[in-house]
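Response to reviewer comment R2.3. The reviewers asked that we include at least one raw input/output pair. We reproduce the pair for Secreted effector J SseJ here without editing.
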Amino acid sequence: MPLSVGQGYFTSSISAERFNVIKESARPPELSLWEKIKAYFFTTYYAEALECIFKLYHYQELNLTPVQVRGAYIKLRALASQGCKEQFIIESQEHADKLIIKDDNGENILSIEVECHPEAFGLAKEINKLYPKPKNISLGNTKPKNISLGNINYQTGIFWRQFI
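Raw output as returned:
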């Protein structure tokens, strides 16, 4: 069972054979009658996972942007069962990212390369330089201040400790 989607007791498996059928087919995958019945009674996100796999294999024919391809990959990872999330690997290279899904034996069941735009990351770096994130300030050594709310006086340190 290469990929399991869904959470808890309600999971469905997508076999390596199903991956190959989706890869070879030009049409989006369709659910069988039994799969539709299961999807009606149990939310496993099986149909959404198949749709993501189809988008990943056929992103060029569908004219998907690199952002949309990464979005489908991230959505598929989010739909995967907890134990399968480590099967999703992104290998970043200089001008492309390799999106990989491995089976239980470590074999690639899906591997595609998507170009990345370094200028977008350069812009993000410039924004971080212009607007740096504030540093974390420890609140442990601060001296409590007295504040007044109407007729009630509070020491801020004591007041906030009630909520922690």
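The chain has a mean pLDDT of 78. The helical segments are 16-24, 33-41, 46-57, 66-79, 118-130, 156-161. Further pairs are available on request from the corresponding author.
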